[in-house]
Amino acid sequence: MPEPEFEDLTARARIRDAAIALFAERGAGATTVRDIAEQAGVSPGLLRHHFGSKEALREACDAYVLDRLVQIKEKMLFDNPGFLPAVHPTVVRYNKYVTRALLDGSPSAAAMFDDMVRLSADWIEQHIPGLTKDYHSYAAVFTGMQSGLLAMHEHVSRALGADMFTPEGHVRLAAALIDFYSHPLLTPDLAAKVQSALDALRAKAEGA
Amino acid sequence: MPEPEFEDLTARARIRDAAIALFAERGAGATTVRDIAEQAGVSPGLLRHHFGSKEALREACDAYVLDRLVQIKEKMLFDNPGFLPAVHPTVVRYNKYVTRALLDGSPSAAAMFDDMVRLSADWIEQHIPGLTKDYHSYAAVFTGMQSGLLAMHEHVSRALGADMFTPEGHVRLAAALIDFYSHPLLTPDLAAKVQSALDALRAKAEGA
DNA sequence: GGCTCGGCTATACAGGCGTACAGTCGGCAA
DNA sequence: TTGCCGACTGTACGCCTGTATAGCCGAGCC
After folding, report:
1. Is residue A62 a contact partner of residue A16, using CB atoms and an 8 Å limit?
2. Is the CB of A12 under 7 A from strand D?
3. How does residue B89 score in pLDDT terms, banded at 50, 70 and 90?
4. pTM attached to this predicted model
């Protein structure tokens, strides 16, 4: 099953790909039907003919990207340490798309987020038991940070001094991520201090 | 200097506040001049009279929020452990606004992001020396994750089972954050494995 | 009192948007 | 050959957007 990346694709597929690229880059709200049609090299009317409406096109893109991403991730799960985001251009574009969809409030992207939270929670509970008392909340934070880092791609890249999706930037990002994930940022006494502050807050909330 | 939260504010201030609220909630692109005017209880024309254009209004909001946020953060820096996001409603709204502005590509929000990276890098270098070889990249990732978590607010809240800006959700989030920041997610041997994978990648990049 | 002037409204305009629809073209069964 | 049907185009419509502008009203100065 080779990637469907031919130059001369079905017009329907070219529309879909153009929409995915533009939605990922600017968001669905800032992309017009005419933009997509132009990029796909067809007339605006054809979008409607094939997909019915812009919203329906968006849903078709959602379904397509999510499906392909699941396929790809399943394939990579076995030969990748898993914490380093991939650099394959297609995966990058799809990840960008999902991140955008998450921010735009797409239901299917939200469902995928929830899946990732569940998967992370299971993985952590199995591999690092005792890390937390509430695996699901922990996984929610972890997944949110992971996705959020992608959402902040532009600013993180600027701070890194290199686009985090180029090899150069990716290496810097990965190095920082390894440091980030392998050493605690809070020392035990600082953690205890914050914990007690939280307990006080919790007590106050229950008292009220 | 009490908070300017009177019911009967200057029309100009009411417009600004309405714009901040709507921009933070839906983003500037999805907010119309008429929406803002209605929420502020004035006519659309008055926006133009006071601010010149929608874009100029956005810049005025940017400047105002960033200025107030700096004031607030300076005041809180001394009586807050710093890692737990604040729950004060105004601060929450302003943080939401900045996060949106970051995603919308506001230059002043980007500048604030860069400042936060610098501040974090300094703080880490001073308080946890030896944590990383590249404090700036580390801080970039840290700041990106922190902001990104806010950007993913909707989904994180759903996974937590409570809006992370309500006391209930905030407590869960804070508990997970403490676990997250006080225990390494990567065990030393796993970290070494990922590190060697990264070194191989780096070598290949330099060889090419 | 008369006048100016800034805050404010109402209305109008041009442009871009998603959508609708009538029509053209080419391949393929009968 | 004839007829049909789906892919595809071009144009037009109605709506909503940001912007422009003419005018109203009340407070403050001469």
Report:
1. no
2. yes
3. confident
4. 0.89
